[in-house]
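Q: My collaborator sent me two sequences in one message, no labels, and asked for predicted structures for both. Can we handle them in order? The first one she listed is below.
A: Yes, handling them in the order given. First sequence, followed by its structure tokens:
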Amino acid sequence: MPEILTWGPNRLPVPYVAKWSGEEVLAGGALGLRPGGWGLVYRDEAAGDRDRHGVLWARVGHAPGSGRPDFRVMHPARQRHAMQHRLCQVCARPADRNGKGWLFALRRPDAADALPGWPEGLLSTKPPVCAPCARLATEHCPHLGEPVFVRVRKPRVWGVFGGAFGPGLTPGPDDYLPYGHPATPTFLANQLVTELTRCTLTPAP
């Protein structure tokens, strides 16, 4: 398993899923349309560019540690790998799991956004965490604020997050797309989405 990378004079821990500035977005001119104009392709499309549901994924170079980390952006391939295999988003080791499920760290919702039963049914792009890294996240991830920790017994792969492209390869707004949606051929994914079900709130590790 990879060691946790650090950055800056204070050696700030950088999550495994974080994108670094030296990791170049590679799609660019390689992105095109299928004959007839409906559906995205890479002109040099290769095995691995699509997932098993046929969704096309954004291409980003793999060079963790190159440049500066962007804690707000997740690297598509690493995020997908961590989410699929229930790996900790910080260290890429197996996420913490007990009889109540896998451990997830969630941003505490504003009162206006806290629906009854939250976080049951929440769509999440953030992979789970292990217990040691949950403590790291509490100390070093200001975007989490005061995080809420949740055990999820049945995390279910739901779909993807990214954006659809219109005529002339005009990009649309970022959005969630469930697997099997009719707009799948026009969509470029950059994050795997998991639905959190059978959730139990739990104290911080």
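Q: And the one she listed second?
A: Here it is, processed independently of the first:
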Amino acid sequence: MFLKAWFILRYWIGWVIFFQLARLAFLFSNFSLTKTSGINNFSGSMLYGLKMDMSMGVYSCFLICLFVLLAVFFKPFRSARLYKIYTAIVLLPVLLLIFADIGLYREWGFRIDATFLKYLSNPTEAWASVSHLPLLSIILLFVVVYSLLLFLSNKFINRKIALLQSTDKKWINTIAVMLLAGLFIIPLRGGFQLAPLNQSSVYFSDNNFANHAAINAPWNFMHSVSHNTDARTNPFIYVDAKEALAIKDSLFNGKQHNENILQLPANAKPNIIFIVWESFTEKATHLQREGVEITPRFNELKKEGIYFSNIYATGDRTDKGIVGILSGYPSQPVTSVVKTPVKAARLPMISKVLAGQGYNTSFYYGGELEFANMKAYLLGGGFKKFISKNDFDPRDHNSKWGAHDGVVMKKLTEELSKEMVPFFCTWLTLSSHEPFEVPVPAAFKTSDETSMFLNSLHYTDAVVYDFIQQCKQQPWWSNTLVVIAADHGHRQPATGKKIDDFKMPLLLLGGALLQKGMVNERIGSQVDIAATVLSQLHTPSTAFVWSRNLLDSSSLPWAYFCFNNGYGFVQAGNYFIFDNVGKKPIEQAGNMSENDIRKGKAIQQLSFQDYLDK
């Protein structure tokens, strides 16, 4: 009697089983994380994730309900060919997302979402990001899996298509199909609860990987894309607006007690060089591998300058780090201000301030500046000269991204030797970006991912050191300040603590330094670089409202950072990392109070509101 409804139900169950198998593939592809999380979290991911699998199953067979309803009255809709073609069309993008998600999770640490599309806007850079993967093997595996799934689905359709052939009891079948379609609303929205299904609906554990594994990747991507419009309301309202402002004021309480670290002739303007080191994680500065020190030359340079040992990157991507350094602006969860040019254009930039003071400004990068809309941001920032991938001979495009750091360094040294002073120059390195290939023999025998990453840092370490030595030979060196900072940290080498992935080195050195060989242990942020440098120039930094002077002894020691959909807050003696999806801390240390957590919430709330208001 209800044969047609039974066909739909069986078809839907097939999709649910497929998504459960996809979760198993994800778990086994991240076997080390799965093993660490334990059997209870493994089974929990499968069980709690079933809710989202059932929802995505409804989306996958939505048109099937319509086809079967029409099959009650029209013969063409009883054809097995129609259902085979539909399944093949839907399965292709779904399987592509599943494969992409498995490949990207190790790099990103979150399930695939609309961020994926933003990076596809620059195919060259996107290709460089994945070219180190065994793409041929992945493509072959995809073809095999897709073909196998089509074979199984076609076999199912051939066996069950007879359920649609009966023309008896049309109205009973019509009512049954419509009733089933109506009942599908329940798994579609995740149950009977008031709030519809979202990512936090499947969160169940204090292990963040287990929660991530419970998410259905195609559902997450679809949800992210459909909700990825320009936000007009702040989703991170946690505290009363007045209380949030009061908390912010208490954190930004510095009294401008600046410590002068430069020795300059009267009215002199120092040259300033920013070296923004790709993925330069603080973890690497005190590591050895196979008896080889990772950054021996940087550690030597630390003896010549002022090293800040407790600095945290504002985000986890280059576009966020560049804005953090040049604009003193915190990164945002979910999005990035630099990818919205109209907002980025309203940010203050240290390059623009210095250009207004007569500095010759330049930006050097061996790759393509168009990546992540950075070029639009930089063009509006007072930079007068740009050197990027197209300015190098194609023979020197020896990196997947463009020209390696050694090539760029030679160009930079040559250009600065004839640059008019005072100048402000920013150099963004790239060799320590995935795929971690370098144009010199490897320092380590092993070729696992951690070794390759550390080897790329070892290479750039030598390049940066050589650059500094050549700068010392220039007549302008005695009047120069060099700032070496990371664009962001890195998950490698893994320590088991997410907080370590955001800690980054910050070193001030140069011939203009009055003090040398000092270590400053004050907790601070990447966004504080702008105000710190401007204070040494006795230039107001009031436009950089999120940036604090690291050399102001009266300021409170703290740092805020964020990632895809969460944030961290660090103070002396404690820290916590908060997941906005699960709405709870996922990592913490020290004695945390509710007041401490409210500080982090207030900064996220106000900084995101500031982003919206741009």
